[in-house]
């Protein structure tokens, strides 16, 4: 049985991996405007492994990924035809983020 702090850290790591999976998937699809907005990402997480994740929890995880160099924040507003609107602050995976994601996938043995 894990201590509460270890359990929280493991949950945060799982959230990091799932966020990086979504950011990597977005990059692989090569959208005309790269990156996912916070609410887009939270909605994707809510449909997958984290149905109850809140907006503040998603924002906190993204901030930590950016601080650690695993994600980058894109701030220039751009019109996205596929979304039918102008998108603002969004997030994209970095090369170190891909390395972390690959290591996590290899550790678990699945995507």
Write a structural description.
The chain has 111 residues and is α+β, with helices and mostly antiparallel strands. Helix content is 55%, strand content 13%. The chain has helices spanning 4-28, 38-46, 55-67, 95-108; strands spanning 71-74, 78-80, 85-87, 90-93. The strands form two sheets. It has a two-stranded antiparallel sheet with strand order 1-4. It has a two-stranded antiparallel ribbon with strand order 2-3. A hairpin with a 4-residue loop joins strand 2 and strand 3 (85-87).
Q: Report the portion of residues in β strands.
A: 5-15%
- Helix % is 40-55%
Question: What is the topology, as strand order, of the major beta sheet?
Answer: 1-4
How many strands? Answer: 4
Major beta-sheet overview: 2 strands, antiparallel
What does the average pLDDT come to?
A: 89
Please give the radius of gyration in angstroms: 14 Å
Structural class: alpha+beta
């Amino acid at each position: 049985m894990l201590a509460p702090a270890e359990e929280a850290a493991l949950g945060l790591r799982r959230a990091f991996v799932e966020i990086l999976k979504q950011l990597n998937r977005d990059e692989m699809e090569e959208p005309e405007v790269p990156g996912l907005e916070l609410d887009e990402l939270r909605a994707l997480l809510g449909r997958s492994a984290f149905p109850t994740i809140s907006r503040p929890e998603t924002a906190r995880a993204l901030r930590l990924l950016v601080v650690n160099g695993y994600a980058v924040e894109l701030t220039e507003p751009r019109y996205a035809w596929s979304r039918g609107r102008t998108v603002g602050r969004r997030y994209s995976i970095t090369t170190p983020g891909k390395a972390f994601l690959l290591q996590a996938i290899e550790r678990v043995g699945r995507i």
